[in-house]
Amino acid sequence: MAATQFVVNGLLVGALFAGVAVGFALIWGVVDIINLAHGEMVMLGGYTSYWMLTLVTGNAEGSPLLFLATIPVAIAVLFGIGYALQRTLVSRVIGTDIFLTLLVTFGASIAIQQLAIQAWSANPRSIQVSFADPSVNLAGIVVPKMKLVAFAGALVLTALMYVFLQKTRTGRAIRAVSQNPEAAALVGIDVEHTRAVTFGVSSAIAGGIGAFIAVILNIQPQMGLIYTLKSFIIVVFGGVGSIPGALIGGLLLGSVEELVAGFISSQWTLAVSFSLLIVLLILKPRGLFGQGAEQ
Amino acid sequence: MSTTDEDSSGVLRSILPPEQVDRFLGTCDDYGWALLGLGTLIAASFPVLGLEGGYFMTVLSEMFLFAILALSWDIVGGQTGYPSFGNMAFFGIGAYATAILTKDFAVAFPVAFLLAGLLAVTFAAIIGIVVLRLRGHYFAIATLGVLLVAQQVSRILDITGGASGKILLETPSAETFYYLFLGVLVVEMALVYYLSGTRFGFVLNAIRDDEEKATAMGFNTTYYKTAAWMLAGLFTGFAGAAYSLFNTFIDPQTAYNGAWNVELIAMALLGGSGTVAGPVIGAFGLHTIIELVETYAVGWQLVLLGGAVIVTVIGFPKGVVGTLSEYASQMDYYKHGGMAATDTDDQEVNADE
């Protein structure tokens, strides 16, 4: 029985991991960059939502609808930050040694993290959302309502991004750039702009998920690296550039972590999931579902 | 970081690339050894000349420490082309090993120091077998993960003192550490400098330039990679082993400092990776700046570090030494008369062969 509860918890949190990882996979697939500042986008999204709510209510508490209203703001702000990050920094190192691109995004990650500490202190914060009846009980399994909302929110954001990539003109341009930047440029696509939009979209979804993380877990300036690493694990697991792969990878990682936390100790979650990654990298370096950067 | 051309005559050059060899502070010759010896003498005489006033001594010791770390990173990151984001894992292991051995088991410091180095090498060998099979993005993130896991484990275990760490009060004098850090740095510089003129050093560079060609030439690249990785582990472990007592305090945050890991990469790049002098110059330079920021703008040093990394990577990817040596080889080319000023290296190299 306990195991079922852990798995349910894991799936609920795993959808959030998956949402973050989808953005990470998008940049990796399209721009061929590992964005080590991706976790910071999650953090900034959480803080955007937190401060919006504080601005309206005076403290970071509010009704579910009021909280949901802050999500578009977080998405918009993070889109701008992501777009600017690509245009000002990342575009300058594209095509050089991949190690340099890693270092630039790592540098950005440290700078953002430390600026956040300077601005908001290192204390963890969270958003409180009021529900008359906080949990629902389904056949003996307790599910907090807010986790359900966050789970649904993460799935909706991921689905929206999938639709955006498949159906819109910009989405098609992004896929074209991911397949062949030179050919895309030849048919009149502004490759630099498209890459920046990709970065913006990736950061926006991370920011939106960050807001949900602020509700069900908590946020603090140094949280980013863990989310970046988890995204990496998920993307390697699911295959670079595969959105369904990232979704399944996220749900699996969430379940594994909750099971480890439940049966061993929450302190061991990182070590276990990371060891799994190493084993996977050696056995199946291309991931379980992907063959490189195709989408 | 640079690659040679792809034609078949380039195979020999990818094993023996004169352009890269030249970057070791102008090939492995007597001038380099004399310079190293002179620098050592000057540095060693500072305490004798009465400059042992606490602050100055501490700052210099820290500079030597960072130079050791940056140069160790460069053996694998710059010379072999496997950019590690997890070198601080060896540092943490060395640091905890001496802390635990001296405090809990009353082992004498010199013995603990050597044992810590041995432990770091063993750890490097085990980890290396696994992570050195990966390349590029995967290697970088895997090493970062090793660092984070090591940090997490040190937070959980009892023997490491958990999250609150260990306080070490019975430590040798500041002068001891000054000479210890200086000694390790000089031995490491001499070793890397010597190796740069041997087959071992050339194969490392060949792996960086084109690992498949190096394998095709019949070199067991796994052996060379792992040996380089263990060498880096040894010196990083020694640095950590001395640091915990030097600092009189150790906890998971300081032992496995992820920001330091970026700092030492920035140092190697800033000075010029793939060279002997580069990482050391970079360590001295960047540490001076960081020390100034720490004094005059407390709390902003990591923001500065992030900025410094970005500026270095975008502005001077070849670093101080790389840029200088490029300039020098261009001057040399003009002097010995040639055709157009482009592709200097290739023309020169063919003439030499």
Structure, described:
The complex is a heterodimer of chains A (295) and B (353). Chain A has eleven helices and four strands. By secondary structure, chain A is mainly alpha-helical. Chain A has one domain. In chain A, the strands form two sheets. Chain A has a two-stranded parallel sheet with strand order 1-2. In chain A, helix 5 runs antiparallel to helix 8. Chain B is an all-alpha fold. Chain B has a domain of 204 residues: ABC transporter involved in vitamin B12 uptake, BtuC. Chain B is built from 16 helices and two strands. In chain B, helix 3 packs antiparallel against helix 8, helix 5 runs antiparallel to helix 6 and helix 12 runs parallel beside helix 15. Chains A and B meet through helix 4, helix 9 and helix 11 of A and helix 7, helix 12 and helix 14 of B.
Helix and strand sequence of chain B: HHHHHHHEHHHEHHHHHH
Given as residue ranges, the uncertain stretches of chain B (5+ residues, pLDDT < 50) are 1-13, 23-27, 339-353
Number of helices in the DSSP assignment of chain B: 16
CA-based shape of chain A: globular
GO molecular function (chain B): branched-chain amino acid transmembrane transporter activity
Membrane topology (chain B): Multi-pass membrane protein
Keywords (chain B): Cell membrane, Membrane, Transmembrane, Transmembrane helix
Subcellular location (chain B): Cell membrane
In short:
Chain A is mainly α and 295 residues long. Chain A has helices spanning 2-31, 38-57, 64-88, 98-120, 145-167, 169-179, 181-186, 191-216, 224-238, 243-263, 269-283; strands at residues 61-62, 128-129, 135-138, 141-144. In chain B, 49% of the residues are buried.
